[in-house]
Amino acid sequence: MDTEKLFSIIPIKNIKGVLPKSVTDIAVDSRAVSAGGVFVCIEGFTVDGHSFVQKAVDQGARVIVASKPVAVDLEKVAVVYVKNTDRAIALLAPHFYQYPSKRMTMIGVTGTNGKTSVSNMIHTILQHTGERSAVTGTIGFNLDGTLMETENTTTDVLTTQKMIHQAAEADCSTMTMEVSSHGLVEGRLAGTEFDIAVFTNLTHDHLDFHGTMDNYGHAKGLLFAQLGQDLSQRKFVVLNADEPWSERMEKMTSYPVLSYGIRREADFRARDIVLSPDGTSFKMETPVGDFTVRMNVIGEFNVYNALAATAALFAKGMEMEDIINGLSVIPAAKGRMEKVETDLPLTIYVDYAHSPDAIEKAINAVLPYKKAEQKLIFVIGTGGNRDRKKRPIMAEKASIADYVILTTDDPRDEPYESILSELEAGMAHKRYAAIGDRAEAVKHAVSVADAGDIIIFAGKGHEDFQIVGHEKLPHSDAAIALEEAERKFRKGFIETE
Ligand SMILES: CC(=O)N[C@H]1[C@@H](OP(=O)(O)OP(=O)(O)OC[C@H]2O[C@@H](n3ccc(=O)[nH]c3=O)[C@H](O)[C@@H]2O)O[C@H](CO)[C@@H](O)[C@@H]1O[C@H](C)C(=O)N[C@@H](C)C(=O)N[C@H](CCC(=O)O)C(=O)O
Ligand SMILES: Nc1ncnc2c1ncn2[C@@H]1O[C@H](COP(=O)(O)OP(=O)(O)OP(=O)(O)O)[C@@H](O)[C@H]1O
């Protein structure tokens, strides 16, 4: 890109050295700099990008954007000094990629729980009708079927713009993004113009970061406020009528609202819900008539997710018949009440619930069809060095299960003892075990199971690792459970080791 054009977008304090005519790329990570590119130094929570300038230059950076003095050979490299590099990258990134979000329908999904599920429902329904679609969030960046890893649910502003650009270049008509409260507060969505903003719910989580529920709710509200005030644009807000915070979200936007829900009046409302172990069916009342929905995913929470996805796609202009057909083929999002295939006499689900409300919803997804003679065993852990206030509330919700195993979910630097004792404080009954080592906790769940029982492993979901100390160690609840179940339930099982 033409260098002068690129930098015309930011306020500059001064320039040292001579700017090249053009630059090839832009990076905020010295390890990702390409020859002839720009490196923008970001002061992070952990390290200061200014200390990687030499590394960036060694990688071929031709221009450095900095807010503090940096020592480089000005014969070879130019330095653009700005007041604030965070602000600079927020302006440079969308400008560099030529505002790609304007080239597609952009759907943003926020809320404590359900972002991944709703986003993936939208994506799958779009693909089912033959549309090219991209989705990004906790599971990664899915560019019309090709999945790429991402660092965050809502990535930094540069990565976000790059992904939107890639989706637009790949002729995707729609990009759906999970929007985290952290992403909103830290400005990772600068330059992303959403057409449809969806709200799922707001319950206890991330209070280590936001401090209070009020701050957390207002952080989520930024998505609706940031839709802007240009009412000549066709934009929509999709809100959960059964969620008290929706009223506040409605006040934060000027655009038309489509509501969805079960308990209260709504534009998209589900009734006659039938929950079963193999799927869910219900009648959906919509502004254009009633429809019968059959889905393979389980749990009432997925009825909410389906209603949210439907309202968003309706707002986009999709035919209701196409939406209903699409809902019939959606698989469980990876690691969200995902049934583990086995012919052994156990029903095993892997789930990502790691907030009190999600735990309650996950357990309630199986209770309607659990038989009196079946035990529901629930394994739940929390992360170390993160929101501690939610621990006892998580255990209290988990107590709905017949037997609970309290464990860790990425203990990081925190000792098992404090994580477990803070969880134990919330237990409402004594039918539980507290086991710090997650692999041992999984084995224990199988050891206490009788044939026919149901086990839910919550917290890890799609993740295939456990962070212990600063190391990311391989870990799979499903693999450990299946191995243990083979040993316990398979007749004639022979140990291979
Ligand atoms: C607390 C927080 O928001 N941290 C984010 C932040 O990390 P940081 O400030 O520590 O970054 P840093 O490591 O200090 O690096 C500073 C700069 O130096 C650069 N650098 C670094 C090393 C190097 O060798 N060279 C180099 O140039 C980095 O690229 C960066 O530009 O910037 C990183 C890059 O954008 C993010 O990946 C990281 O998210 C971490 C992984 C994280 O855990 N974030 C959580 C709190 C979060 O954001 N979660 C939400 C989801 C919540 C939910 O479950 O709903 C999310 O959206 O993911
Ligand atoms: N609408 C919902 N309401 C409450 N709980 C839900 C809902 N949808 C999913 N869940 C529960 O929350 C867990 C996480 O779901 P999902 O990944 O879709 O949410 P998320 O908002 O993307 O979460 P995260 O930001 O932590 O990735 C699921 O495994 C399920 O137990």
Task: Write a structural description.
- The strands form four sheets. An eleven-stranded mixed beta sheet has the order 9-8-7-10-6-11-12-13-14-15-16, with helices on both faces.
- By secondary structure, it is α/β, with parallel strands linked by helices.
- The protein has three domains: 94 residues, 3-Layer(aba) Sandwich (Udp-n-acetylmuramoylalanyl-d-glutamate--2,6- Diaminopimelate Ligase, Chain: A, domain 1), CATH 3.40.1390.10; 228 residues, Mur-like, catalytic domain (UDP-N-acetylmuramoyl-L-alanine:D-glutamate ligase, 3-Layer(aba) Sandwich); 153 residues, Protein-Tyrosine Phosphatase, Chain A (Alpha-Beta Complex), CATH 3.90.190.20.
- It contains 16 helices and 24 strands.
- It is globular and about 75 Å long.
- The protein starts with a helix and ends in an 8-residue tail after the last helix.
- Helix 4 crosses helix 11, helix 10 runs antiparallel to helix 11 and helix 15 runs parallel beside helix 16.
- Belongs to the MurCDEF family. MurE subfamily.
- Catalyzes the addition of an amino acid to the nucleotide precursor UDP-N-acetylmuramoyl-L-alanyl-D-glutamate (UMAG) in the biosynthesis of bacterial cell-wall peptidoglycan.
